[in-house]
Amino acid sequence: MSSIEIVDNTVSQLSLLLSEKKLSSFEITQAFIDQTNRVDDRVHAFLHLDEKNFLKQAEESDERRKNGKTKGKLDGIPIALKDVISVEGQPLTAASKILENYISPYDATVTRKLKDAGVIIGGRLNLDEFAMGSSTENSAFGPTHNPWNLDCVPGGSSGGSSAAVAAREVPISLGSDTGGSIRQPASLCGVVGMKPTYGMVSRFGLAAFASSLDQIGPFGKTVKDVSLLLEIISGHDPLDSTSFPREVPAYGSLIEDKLEPSVIGLPKEFFGEGMDQEVRDSVDKVIDFYREQGHKIIEVSLPTTELSIPVYYMIATAEASSNLARYDGIRYTSRSKYSENAIDVYAKSRGEGFGEEVKRRCILGAYGLSSGYYDAFYLRAQKTRTLIREDFNRVFDEVDTILTPTSPTPAFKFGEKSDDPISMYLSDIYTISTNLAGLPAISVPCGFTKNRLPIGMQLIGKAFHESELLSIAHAYDREHNFGCESPQLV
Ligand code: GLN
Fold first, then answer.
1. What is 3-265+398-484's CATH number, 1.10.150.20, 3.40.50.10420, 3.40.50.1820, 3.90.1300.10?
2. Ligand 1 — pocket residues by CB below 6 A?
């Protein structure tokens, strides 16, 4: 099998090829490195790739396999991580100049779990600085390009993670999702991306943006691959006090079980104005598919949806302003050369190190938290967040899953929204409320526009019902497999 053919395989296929000894982890990893070298000067999904270290881990996996000591299904499979997830001894920049020279002194819990499962970790993937954005245009190291059309954004903030999978530079990757940062780029790049229930995956070792919303989650070409990866990274972690003590089901095999007819809700607020017609047509076909499979489709209402963007931008910025206070020119970060006293060190290091969007958010968050404004902004946003959660609870008394588009439009052009923060913020209108409610949600590719730009649909589940959510997503995905189509890059 040539290296170009290898990279088109799913993880499930690669895992089979490994166990049948038709391919080694070294050959697989080399094939993905070759592909990265062929395409990444145009895609720019990677911020850093340590090829030697990548291949060394692959050799170790092959050695384990030879000795019958394979650690699991994904032993020997390469992965790359969004550059906010710590890997001991590797850089972590969060795509910010302020962390340009930072090296992680320890592994994130997800990293340790991947290592324990024998997954081969290589490379750091691009993002919007500190995960703030929807296009990767906010990366201090230049944007990532959408592999389906290099003039378009890959979405964000995990645009490197989605583009790397779409461009066949890795078979799977990890991202983080605070308001849509896994699902929206997955949708724009034509791959599968999932945000688990808040508390399902440990955040220990994730550079925090908004701690009550952040979740790490998987990307892959198929729902099956994402299920296999989720199984590895989930689970209780005493190092993260918000992680939930719960058994992790065997998602990878559970999704193959026979699916009972269920009830799927279509929230009318998600199907109104602002949605691109081609997106609408593709999602309509998904609805038809589920109906034909015997599921009951009903219209539901989530009336607080329109409040989710303002609520999110109050809570997320408040938490960001406090989380990012640690980057002060003293610890972690680069220090301004021009400081004359201690206050100067803080102000100038932060002034020089942070980009525009990060500064905007720190200022906005600090404002909402300041005395005199706290009750009117932050407290009110928290109360409204409760209403948003209650809306979902009410709907989930009636339905098993909620189906929506993931993004109102397909991938947009560079510069199209970057001068207008509000229009950029609106591209997360369908994803943000699930973070506020803490629910699991997945984006699955469901077609292409006539210009061959991918379209994604979103399925939202009940808290901790990942198995059911993945099963219903898999039922669609295994019949359509849009994530297995390759963009023309080589
Ligand atoms: N695009 C949203 C924002 O800019 C969400 C980001 C995210 O999920 N990390 O905040």
1. 3.90.1300.10
2. 131-134, 157, 177-181, 209, 316, 428
